[in-house]
Design brief:
about 450 residues, Outer membrane efflux proteins (OEP), elongated, alpha+beta, single chain, 10 helices, two-stranded parallel ribbon
């Protein structure tokens, strides 16, 4: 029995909306994506046979019922993902905040009219004094610089949000694609079993016509064939449901009649839990805390800068109406006297926020390590089960079926024994497929938890 080959090709990780279209067209080398830094670490991955195609070509493949690879499914999911589009819009909003943070305060133009509508000599407007001028707040340069740094740190956080969203989407597509591919494999397995049942049915009919098999044996063979037809229908319904789940991630309401391109294979060795745990800090979910810390430090610097007062200057012309109608220049200066409010409350709050970021990082890492341990346990169990079935039970079941078939042809054993042996063999193969499914699900969770972040962020 051939092994299932199931390896993922390295996927595209677009940075921003401007980069995504260009990057998604590039071809990537064939490499395993199980756990990126451990090249053959995890066994169940998807083999991506086809190179990247345009979204239009992928859409045509869905419509025309052609084979769809994991890369193509992922590309289409990213292109149509509302989450990715939302994060791109938010990233653009942050760019606007950065531009705004770098701007200087606007000047203020004002006018003041004095000594009008009073009493005595100040009745009416004959003694009015009009002052027209302009004032400008001279904000300390460090305040603008610190605000800009805080906005830049927010931009990095949004980039990490984008990376984390892509990791989640990749995991969802991987899980759905794997389930659909396994369901497709199960349909083929059930069809293979039907072919064997029909061959046995024909053999029993031939023996019955030669008076070497009873009518009961022929009835048993007919029943086995009919039951297998129902099993195929059930497997096809499961495949249709799996395709609907995958199509939903691609924003397709009609899954069509497309086929999945890929095969399944389990490797010989698993990485250790320690190897995988060492990758947690590189995942977007945890690597983002470095940007969180940077943003909180920038917030502290902003609050410290706000504790320092700014200088405001005023200059203008004062017109004194009277017998001489004289005019004069007027200048002024305002300096805050910060004897009570030195922004100490906001500074304290920002410093506490820095401690909170570190506590959140430790909590997130603890939760990620716990989830990794659980997923690794499921992975190990599925791995051991599959290899146990493959190395011990499968050869024995194949040998038993062959011996039983030979014995039936010689009239030594009954047809019921042949049916039992055949059922046992295909049950083992079905159990191997279920073990593969469990392995794929655990591997996808591990890949999500340990997905490496980009080497650099600009």
């Amino acid at each position: 029995m051939p092994k299932y080959n199931f390896a993922f090709k390295k996927s595209v990780r677009p940075r921003t909306g401007a980069d995504r279209t260009e990057i998604s067209r590039k071809k990537e080398p064939r490499i395993a994506l199980s756990i990126a830094p451990i090249k053959q670490a995890l066994a169940a991955s998807l083999i991506l046979g086809a190179s990247f195609a345009t979204v239009e070509n992928v859409q045509a493949q869905l419509t025309e019922g052609e084979a769809l690879s994991f890369d193509q499914a992922l590309e289409l999911a990213i292109e149509r993902s509302p989450r990715a589009q939302l994060l791109e819009a938010q990233l653009e909003a942050v760019e606007g905040q950065i531009d705004q943070a770098k701007l200087k305060p606007n000047p203020t133009i004002g006018a003041e009219l004095e000594n009008v509508l009073g009493t005595g000599e100040l009745q009416g407007v004959d003694s009015a004094e009009l002052t027209v001028g302009i004032s400008q707040l001279f904000e300390r340069r460090e305040k603008r610089e610190k605000r800009a740094e805080l906005a830049e740190a927010g931009k990095q956080l949004h980039r990490w949000d984008y990376e984390e969203a892509l990791t989640e989407l990749r995991s969802e597509v991987r899980h759905a694609f794997s389930n659909a591919l396994i369901a497709q494999q199960n349909v083929e397995l059930q069809k293979e079993l039907l072919a064997v049942a029909e061959a046995s049915q024909a053999e029993v009919r031939r023996r019955s016509e030669a008076a070497k098999a009873s009518a009961i044996e022929l009835s048993q063979a007919n029943l086995a064939t009919s039951r297998q037809g129902f099993e195929i229908s059930r497997a096809q319904r499961e495949l249709a449901e799996a395709k609907i789940e995958l199509a939903a991630l691609l924003n397709e309401t009609d899954p069509g009649n497309f086929k999945l391109e890929g095969s399944l294979e389990l490797e010989e060795r698993l990485p250790s839990l320690d190897e995988l745990a060492s990758l947690l800090d590189k995942s977007p979910a945890l690597a983002r805390y470095a940007a969180e810390r940077q943003a909180q430090e920038a917030a502290i610097e902003v609050e410290l800068a706000e504790a320092k007062g700014d200088l405001e200057l005023f200059g203008g012309v004062k017109y004194l109406r009277g017998g001489s109608d004289e005019a004069a220049f007027v200048v002024g200066i305002d300096i805050p006297w910060q004897i009570r409010n030195r922004n100490q409350g906001n500074i304290r709050s920002a410093r506490a926020g820095l401690l909170a970021v570190e506590a959140e990082r430790r909590l997130a890492r603890r939760d990620a390590l716990a989830a990794l341990s659980i997923a690794y346990g499921r992975l190990r169990n599925a791995f051991d089960e599959w290899h146990g079935l493959d190395s011990q039970l499968l050869p024995s079941a194949e040998s038993t079926l062959e011996s039983t078939q030979n014995g039936y042809q010689q009239g030594i054993v009954t047809l019921l024994s042949v049916l039992d042996a055949r059922t046992a063999l295909f049950e083992i193969r079905a159990e191997m497929l279920e073990a593969t499914r469990a392995y794929i699900e655990a591997e996808a969770e591990i890949a999500r938890l340990t997905s490496s972040a980009p080497a650099s962020k600009k």
